[in-house]
Specification:
With about 625 residues, the protein is an alpha+beta fold. The chain has five domains: about 45 residues, no CATH class; about 150 residues, Beta-Lactamase (2-Layer Sandwich); about 110 residues, GAF domain (Beta-Lactamase), CATH 3.30.450.40; about 110 residues, 2-Layer Sandwich (Alpha-Beta Plaits), CATH 3.30.70; about 110 residues, no CATH class. About 55% of the residues lie in helices and about 15% in strands. The strands form three sheets. A six-stranded antiparallel β-sheet has the order 3-2-1-6-5-4, sandwiched between helices. The protein has a five-stranded antiparallel β-sheet with strand order 8-7-11-10-9. The longest helix is centred in the middle third of the chain and has 56 residues. It is rod-shaped, with a radius of gyration of 53 Å. About 40% of the residues are buried. The C terminus is likely disordered.
Length: about 625
């Protein structure tokens, strides 16, 4: 046997040169020896390949200890599988469980540009079968395989020329994370060693994807924790700012503006009567079912989400029976939990402020009410000193306004009038007395009536002037007597007590005065009412002129003969008694009181200030 060809053949085999069967038979003519050599060389080649594979697996395993770039690690795994398995193509598809689809993430040996953008839908091809079974799957001829096909996927694989495919699932903790593929452009039957090798690399790729997922979870959790920390700090700072502002006595406008700026959206604060207190007025009418939403929010003690321009309604529980409302407008994105709780805390701060202001107002009302009672009682030096200490001008003019009111409306009237810081209000047996600084009696009466009349508390107000606060009690008695008379006469509106003062002293109330007028002037009043004449005014002119027809005609601006005709009519209605000295006083009082009543009624109905000389308003009558 020639040792030289055999020696050279063995040297080439050791050097990694492929030795074919012909060369073996040339070196070993004996068929049994040649067959033994073939087996020996194949085993050596398998062991060498196995050694290379184990080396690659060890290198890939070491890489797992230092995973930083996930895509780079996946690409390295695909590259090693490609090189060691000797296939035409290797690629890895990541599996999205929520979408039940696979996305190509790393490739080697791909020629088609469409391959990287390939998405394998659910239930299609080798990939979906590997995902469902969680076991390796392969086909020798993909085009003829009895698998669910997709036209686009088939077209991409045909463009790439792939025929045989092996896919192993990437499984970690019972979750399929993807599929690692090895493919050839010729028909190939994958061996158990090839399946095991690709499965090993698939396991490494699964670990990489799992680590990446954990990294993402850790990063997401860290980001979430950081966001929560920042949100918590933001909410705490805002809450502290609102609380400080409330303690410092800030106005609701300032608190609403602070909250609006922090939330970057409009807000509005409504009181228990749904009236705007502060903020964006447009939000006040933007909730059609505000009463129902607010009732639900107050019942739960938490904000509720509503539809429309307003996103959130939070109860301001200064009073659980009659809560206010904090409205928050809709922004670019919905309010998250932290901001919703911040709105609820802001509502608590506003409720605290409302309670605080209400308590201060109640205390102030009590103090001012007690002061008003003391001033109207006797205006003692002690009461005047207290008034001066509260900044009231005790030496300046004041007006006492008497307001007749029902017993059940007086407390509410004191509260409504008490909203005016400059006024002092007290309840009386007839209604209310309001002390108003620096105004004329008619103007003060009109202002008080406007404030109380808006709430349906009163329809009549009578003002009497006082030179200073010490004389307010006397003015209040004059106003009260005049108001009693005016109410009995059926008057309404704002009245200056000076127009009724001469008669208020003669008649205790309007009913007595009205009866006196009717008893003396009933026929004349009826005649004027039926015919539109001016007999009462003519009587006043004749009384003022001491019976002079010419002087009366001049005052009335009519011809003397007209006055003579009217005087004759008066005598026909009343007889000569109206000019008799004994009855003249009663007739004159009745005439003047009737003309005052007419003037005051006319002034109240027109909304104008009543004249202090009512007879002049009738002076032009016929």
């Amino acid at each position: 046997m020639d040792a030289s060809p055999l020696s050279r053949m063995l040297d080439d085999a050791v050097a990694g040169v492929l030795v074919d069967d012909a060369r073996i038979r040339a070196a070993l003519p004996d068929a049994s020896d040649a067959a033994a050599m073939r087996r020996l060389l194949d085993e050596r080649e398998r062991l060498v390949r196995r050694d290379l594979q184990l080396g690659a697996v060890m290198a890939s395993t070491r890489d797992l200890l230092d995973v930083h770039e996930v895509d780079a690690m996946l690409q390295r795994t695909v590259d090693r599988a490609f090189e060691l398995m000797g296939v035409d193509v290797a690629y890895l598809s990541a599996y999205e469980e929520r979408e039940d689809q696979l996305y190509v993430r790393a490739t080697r040996g791909i020629a088609s540009p469409r391959f990287l953008g390939m998405v394998v839908p659910a239930g299609v091809g080798v990939a979906s079968l590997a995902v469902r079974t969680r076991t390796p799957q392969w086909v020798e001829e993909y085009a003829q395989a009895t698998l669910p096909h997709d036209a686009i996927i088939d077209d991409v694989l045909a463009e790439e020329g792939l025929r045989s495919l092996l896919g192993v699932p990437l499984v970690a903790h019972d979750r399929v994370l993807g599929v690692l593929f090895a493919a050839t452009r010729s028909a190939h039957r994958f061996t158990a060693d090839e399946i095991a090798l690709l499965s090993t690399f698939g396991g490494h790729a699964a670990i990489v994807l799992q680590i990446a997922s954990l990294f993402e979870d850790v990063a997401s959790a860290s980001q979430l924790a950081e966001d929560r920390r920042r949100h918590t700090e933001w909410a705490a700072e805002l809450h502290a700012e609102l609380a400080r502002a409330a303690v410092d006595g800030a106005e609701p406008d300032a608190l609403a503006a602070t909250l609006s700026t922090a939330l970057d959206r409009p807000v509005a604060l409504l009181d228990a009567d749904r009236r705007l207190v502060a903020g964006d007025a447009a939000l006040a009418d933007a909730v059609p079912s505000l009463a129902r939403a607010l009732a639900s929010a107050a019942r739960e003690g938490a904000a509720v989400v509503v539809d429309g321009a307003v996103e959130l309604v939070a109860p301001v529980l200064a009073s659980r029976e009659r809560p206010g409302a904090l409205l928050v407008g809709r922004g670019a994105v919905p309010l998250d939990g932290v901001r919703r709780r911040t709105v609820e805390r802001a509502a608590l701060v506003l409720a605290f402020l409302a309670v605080q202001r209400s308590a201060v107002a109640d205390a102030e009302d009590r103090v001012r009410g007690e002061l008003a009672i003391d001033l109207l009682d006797d205006a003692s030096p002690a009461a005047l000193r207290r008034a001066a200490a509260r900044g009231l001008a005790i030496d300046a003019p004041w007006v006492a306004v008497a307001v007749p009111a029902a017993a059940d409306a007086r407390a509410r009237g004191v509260g409504v009038a008490g909203r005016r810081a400059a006024w002092l209000t007290a309840a009386t047996p007839d209604g209310l007395v309001v002390l108003v600084p620096a105004a004329t009696p008619a103007d003060a009466a009109a202002e008080v009536l406007g404030t109380l009349g808006a709430d349906g508390i009163a329809a009549l107000a009578v003002g009497a002037a006082a030179a200073d606060l010490a004389r307010a009690a006397q003015a209040a008695r004059t106003a009260t007597a005049s108001a009693r008379l005016a109410a009995g006469l059926g008057m309404r509106g704002a009245v200056d007590a000076a127009a009724l003062a001469p008669y208020a002293g003669l008649f205790g109330d309007g009913a007595t005065a009205a009866a006196s007028i009717d008893a003396v002037l009933a026929p004349v009043l009826a005649w004027d009412a039926e015919r539109g004449t001016a007999l009462v005014a003519t009587m006043r002119a004749l009384l003022d002129a001491r019976g002079s027809v010419r002087a009366a005609a001049t005052a009335l601006q009519v011809h003397p003969s007209t006055v003579k005709q009217r005087a004759g009519r008066i005598r026909a209605l009343l007889g000569d008694a109206w000019t008799d000295p004994e009855t003249r006083f009663r007739v004159e009082v009745a005439v003047r009181l009737e003309l005052a009543r007419r003037a005051l009624r006319a002034g109240g109905e027109s909304g104008e200030r009543p004249s202090a000389s009512p007879e002049r308003q009738d002076g032009s009558a016929r």
